[in-house]
Amino acid sequence: MDTYVGLLEGYHSRDNILRTISYAAGFASGAFKGKFAKDLIIIANQVSSARTVNRLLDDVLMWRETSDWGSSEKDAVSRRLVILGNVAIQLYYPIEKVAWAADSDILSLKSGPWWDAGTAAWGIYLLLNILRIVRQLILIRSKIIRLLKQRKLESPERNGEKDAEFIAQLKELKSSRRKEYLSLVKNIADLTMCINWLPLKGFLWSGRLSVAKNAFFGTVSSLIGLYLSIADYHVRKTNTE
Known about the structure:
Elements: H1 2-9, H2 11-28, H3 34-54, H4 58-65, H5 76-103, H6 111-154, H7 161-197, H8 211-240
InterPro entries: PEX11, PEX11C_met
Keywords: Membrane, Peroxisome
Protein name: Peroxisomal membrane protein 11C
């Protein structure tokens, strides 16, 4: 219960909960027929709409989160990918605002092209993020190999201080690798949905996935996001105790 309440108190973790509910309802609708299936789709759409409205205030938040523009990245390739990804995601939010306003008849525009542009911006961001994660996995692998080689050369006491330091470093690298793998699967699942939503007939699987199949990938992505949020919450809680 404490974990659930803690997740609700955070913006991103709360959004992950709503995202999971939305896609899980859409995915479950494929297993039923009639009114219950329609009710599940209504739930999915309503929760998705709530998330869209909630994102209308995200511009400043995302600007703050991406304000370092990759300066914390020591690797030049990763830094460039972060910068390009930041540009794409910063474009997404104002585009989504226009699309939402057009859908709500606030602006006298066709919303379709704006939603498509937002989807394209999101897709570019996801692709760049996938490339960044792959790059990070390569770097982590190199660090692990280097650490193991150093361990063999030094051959410290098995119960000594050096050994404890080696174990701690290896554990941290493996933890980072596991998190990156989960993030990779999450981003690939999101990109799968994104391509399905693109208005590019004949391009890969664009427009070919059913609501339930598309929601399956959304559910996978959301569950991973929820797991990562829970893990981050426990880390923060441990650090503050």
